[in-house]
Write a structure and sequence with these properties.
CATH superfamily of chain A: MetI-like
Helix content of chain B: 40-55%
Shape of chain B: globular
InterPro entries (chain B): Bact_solute-bd_prot1, SBP
CATH architecture of chain A: Orthogonal Bundle
Number of helices of chain B: 19
Largest sheet of chain A: none
Protein name (chain B): ABC-type glycerol-3-phosphate transport system substrate-binding protein
Pfam family, one (chain B): SBP_bac_8
Organism (chain B): Conexibacter arvalis
Radius of gyration of chain B: 25 Å
Oligomer: heterodimer
Strand content of chain B: 5-15%
Distance between the termini of chain B: 77 Å
Structural class of chain B: alpha/beta
Order of helices and strands of chain A: HHHHHHHHHHHHH
Number of strands of chain B: 12
Shape of chain A: flat
CATH architecture of the largest domain in chain B: 3-Layer(aba) Sandwich
């Protein structure tokens, strides 16, 4: 005897939401979870791209500790993250503050956002030419203003090459940070600011003690996005220096790619991927938890 | 109420359709490529020679017209991605029917994992038209696994107008060569182009100066019988460092030759740089910049540093390989046979303008023809370039360390120590594997 119509409907109602989820679960499972789990496994093997390799325990991870190129890579990644936090987040906030009080702000913010619409590779090509030590725009400009003695091989001398690329990334990454801060500024509650003004708070004091704490939810988002983006920066570096010369401008993401797809030490490359993912995950979780805890206080 | 029901229905039906659609297309993507199962259609020919596409299309069409199976190229713009694509699909039915590769150790890796079809029968038929050195580059355990896709010699190109204006002759001895460099430098012209852009070009003058000192030393170093730390190699780096310090080379961080920004013609054409040692595949770049081969630029073999080093020239050759596991292996073997034939090579040289690998097919331009004559008349020994001649792990460390030396030409010892450290590891692994 078939189940009564009511029961069938109930069963259908119970399963329908899962049906909606199915495509996404499949996509995430196949393209995210499976490769991630596989990468962790590969990190414990000596896979080479043409052979699956065999289990080597922690060998890849102990090799990481002894590898000078990995140490350079970690150091450069730290430069990138700190540089991006100071320049992209700091300048982004400064620009947002300036532009939100300017009449021409609307036009200027469009102008500052423009580089963000370019791909990382295109930005890399543009700045590659700017930094050319012989015919590049920067060297010519410095020569014109009499600072020729300060010019160098921008992309060939470490650590200047990493700083040069951080500058190029800032040119592109400034716009989104600025826009997010502008949105945050526009949505600030008026009352606390007006109350602070009535109490005599002005300028930097008002900004530091009232505006900045009120902006904290947006700052948390901007800092988190910037952190994650700069931990995994790859395209710009690959286009501008390929991590060179002599591996001096590699970051963790570039080293991971190089070991996996240039030298085909796939197991070793996977171990870098695991370390990078662990760092980003742990930092993100701790940072966001601490930020949101503080947000709740206010 | 009506609208609520229709929305639900829409979501149920639409959602189901999207789910089914995604699944179907995903499964289709996981299955075999449709283009490879179309019977007599064109073969899939993958390569990373992005600028050669129209030449491949043209020769593929001619192959079909000639009765062999034709091909349609799939170009990869990035060599690294390309290598990853071939290596990861090489033992699956997804592998392209034919593909370009590199000779020597990079090729051995694919041979060892049974990715390449044996093409010895093609060499039996066509081999007499090719040099033995070329055949050796594709031979492993007595069998051949590729036919020559391209061959490029590595002479020194020079700007003929600059040489005329400076009253210079092509140098035939090392002293002449140094005198030419000195004269050019005195005239405010950078004698030699050099670059680290694209990573690989840092080996160019390293291999050249070793070969000009002793070809046997080069062979021994490539095959692990000599060490990078041997006094002869240290001396070569000292000499190179001395020439860099004398200002004979362009700033390797400014000029890019053959890859990336590829701005070399901007220096070479107006005569800001007078010479460059590089692969013959640089010629189309020079010609695109408006330089005429034989009139605006020529080529010579760099004179020997040690006069008794003999007649030697670095060359590179890349194979056209047939996938052992390809779905249309027999068709691809037939196509590779046509490619290696006189007719196929004539079509390729006509289309590309490159140097010819076959003795009975003349090269396309006067510069290459002159090099062909020089090689034949002087009974030159051809030596495979550094990139292919030694295990690739050593090459990877080598090009980085040599780039460092080009930027800071100081004490060669730490540079050579670092390369030798990798060489020790790699040769030990080769020993263990054999």
């Amino acid at each position: 005897m078939p189940p009564p119509a009511g029961a069938r409907r109930r069963a259908l109602r119970r399963w329908t939401p899962y049906l909606y989820l199915l495509p996404m679960v499949l996509l995430v499972g196949v393209f995210l979870i499976y490769p991630a789990v596989k990468t962790v496994w590969v990190a414990f093997t000596d896979a080479t791209g043409t052979s699956a390799g065999s289990f080597v325990g922690l060998d890849n991870f102990t090799r990481l500790v002894e590898d000078p190129a990995f140490r350079t890579s970690v150091r450069n990644t730290i430069y990138w993250v700190i540089g991006a936090l100071v320049l992209q987040v700091g300048l982004g906030l400064l620009l947002a503050l300036i532009l939100s009080n300017m009449r021409a702000g609307d036009w200027l913010k469009r102008l500052f956002y423009l580089p963000a619409t370019l791909s990382g590779a295109a930005v890399g090509v543009i700045w590659f030419y700017v930094f050319n030590p012989d015919q590049g725009l920067l060297t010519s400009f410095m020569g014109t203003i009499g600072l020729e003695s300060l010019t160098t091989r921008w992309l060939a001398d470490p650590p200047v090459n990493t700083f040069a690329m951080i500058f190029a990334a800032t040119w592109q990454g400034l716009g989104p940070a600025m826009i997010l801060f502008l949105v945050g500024l526009q949505n600030l509650p008026r009352e606390p600011i007006e109350a602070a003004r009535v109490d005599g708070a002005r300028g930097l004091r008002l900004f530091w003690h009232v505006t900045l704490p009120l902006l904290r939810p947006m700052s948390a988002v901007v800092v988190a996005i910037t952190l994650i983006n700069n931990f995994k920066v790859f395209d710009l570096i690959w286009v501008m220096t390929q991590g060179g010369p002599y591996r001096s401008s590699e970051t963790l993401a570039v080293s991971m790619y190089r070991e996996s797809f240039v030298t085909f030490s796939v197991g070793y490359g996977a171990s870098i991927a695991v370390v990078l993912t662990l760092i980003v995950t742990i930092l993100s979780v701790f940072y966001l938890r601490s930020m949101f805890r503080k947000v709740e206080v206010y | 109420m009506t609208s609520e029901i229709s929305r639900k229905k829409f979501l149920q039906v639409g959602g189901g359709a999207i789910a089914a659609g995604s699944l179907a297309s995903f499964l289709a993507a996981c299955g075999g490529g449709s283009s490879s199962s179309d019977g007599g259609g064109m073969l899939r020919f993958s390569n990373d020679k992005i600028n050669w596409e129209e030449w491949f299309v043209e020769t593929g069409r001619l192959a079909r017209e000639a009765g062999a199976v034709g091909w349609r190229p799939t170009q990869y713009s990035d060599t690294t991605t390309y290598q990853a694509a071939i290596k990861t699909t090489g033992n699956t039915p997804k592998v392209p029917d034919m593909f370009s590769w590199w000779s020597g150790w990079l090729m051995k890796e694919l041979v060892d994992t049974s990715m390449l079809a044996d093409v010895s029968s093609i060499w039996e038929r066509e081999g007499s038209a090719y040099s033995d050195g070329l055949k050796d580059a594709f031979t492993f355990d007595g069998k051949q696994y590729g036919v020559p896709l391209n061959v490029a010699y590595w002479p020194t190109f020079y700007n003929k107008r600059v040489f005329r204006e400076q009253g210079l002759e092509v140098p035939t001895t090392w002293d002449d060569f140094i005198a030419v460099c000195e004269r050019l430098k005195g005239a405010g012209i950078t004698p030699l182009g050099a670059t680290i852009e694209g990573r690989f070009p840092s080996f160019v003058y390293f291999q050249e100066f070793i070969v000009r000192t002793s070809p046997q030393l080069y062979r021994d170093l490539m095959e692990g019988r000599a060490k990078y730390t041997d006094p002869e190699i240290v001396d070569v780096l000292r000499l190179w460092g001395d020439l860099i310090r004398r200002g004979y080379f362009s700033d390797p961080a400014s000029v890019s030759i053959g890859t990336g920004a590829n701005n070399f013609p901007q220096y070479f054409k107006p005569g800001r740089i007078a010479m460059v040692t590089f692969g013959g595949w640089l010629e189309p770049t020079l010609m695109e910049a408006g330089m005429r081969p034989g009139e605006d630029f020529g080529a010579f073999v760099m004179p020997n540093i040690e006069a008794d080093a003999g007649n030697n020239l670095i060359y590179e050759t890349g194979p056209l390989c047939v996938a052992q596991n390809g779905q249309r292996r027999d068709d691809a073997l037939e196509a590779a046979g046509w490619w290696a034939s006189r007719e196929g090579q004539s079509a390729w040289i006509d289309a590309s303008g490159f140097a010819s690998a076959r003795a009975d097919v003349p090269s396309a331009n006067p510069v290459d023809q002159e090099i062909d004559r020089t090689i034949a008349d002087g009974r030159f020994q051809l030596l495979n370039r550094y990139w292919e001649a030694t295990p690739h792990e050593i090459v990877e460390v080598g090009v980085d360390q040599l780039a460092k030396f080009m930027l800071e030409p100081g004490d060669p010892k730490p540079i050579l120590d670092a390369i030798q450290k990798q060489a020790d590891t790699s040769w030990a692994a080769v020993e263990a594997g054999s």
